[in-house]
Specification:
D-Maltodextrin-Binding Protein, domain 2, 2 domains, five-stranded mixed β-sheet, LysR substrate-binding domain-containing protein, DNA-binding transcription factor activity
Length: 216
């Protein structure tokens, strides 16, 4: 009730709960920073969730907004805003690997020690599809369901990893670099998702409206 009353006065308070799929090319921090500038009393809770968990927790009102793939989204239950296409690149540590200037092909990647997410995740399914549609069979050196473990393996020179090209992961240390992969996108587009039915928080609606104003 406090959040709703404050919203009527133009000031948002409370905690915005946002669930984001792993390996998302959508960086939520600029959006959260903008919301915090507009509403200094607003707080944020970020969760890393699978596509199924995003929809489940939106439906049960455990999160306010989700960033997930729009494939098979039920538009009668959820509103969505389509985000930019998720392109892929190869993340590696320049102290251990080096590549030329041209974009890498999927055939190039088969010969490398690759680290990947486990097979149940959408981003991994998109990677497998890109390999298999070209008649290629990858043999990952390491698989994990934790992005930070994958980053540790890359930073240690143990492997390279296929990551979102625009996710900003290469900025984490001076030695990491993201190299473009030719013709590499996820199977489905990402979107910002909000439940259509009540209860729908004023925090979610304000964030949704702010993203809707961004030219795409």
């Amino acid at each position: 009730m406090q959040a709703e009353a404050a919203a009527c006065r133009g000031h948002l308070v409370g905690t915005l709960r946002l669930g984001v799929v792993p390996m998302s090319s959508f960086d939520p921090l600029p959006l959260l920073h903008r919301l915090h500038q507009l509403h200094p009393n607003l707080r944020f809770e970020l969760s890393s969730l699978s596509s199924e968990q995003v929809l489940e927790q939106l439906a049960s009102n455990r999160i306010d907004l989700g960033v997930s793939y729009l494939e098979r989204l039920d538009s009668e239950r959820f509103d969505s805003l389509t985000l930019d296409e998720t392109r892929m690149g190869l993340l590696y540590d320049r102290r251990h690997f080096t590549f030329g200037d041209r974009p890498l092909s999927w055939a190039d990647l088969v010969e490398l020690p690759l680290g990947t997410l486990t097979s149940g995740m959408h981003f991994r399914q998109s990677i497998d599809h890109n390999f298999h549609s070209r008649g290629l069979q990858p043999n990952p050196l390491i698989q994990t369901d934790a992005v930070h473990q994958l980053l540790q393996a890359v930073h240690g020179g143990f492997c390279c990893a296929i990551m979102p090209l625009d996710g900003g992961l290469e900025t984490l240390t001076e030695h990491l670099h993201l190299h473009p992969i030719a013709d590499a996108c996820t199977l489905a587009r990402l979107g910002l998702i909000m439940r259509r039915s009540a209860p729908r928080s004023a925090l979610a609606e304000a964030c949704f409206a702010l993203v809707a104003e961004i030219p795409r």
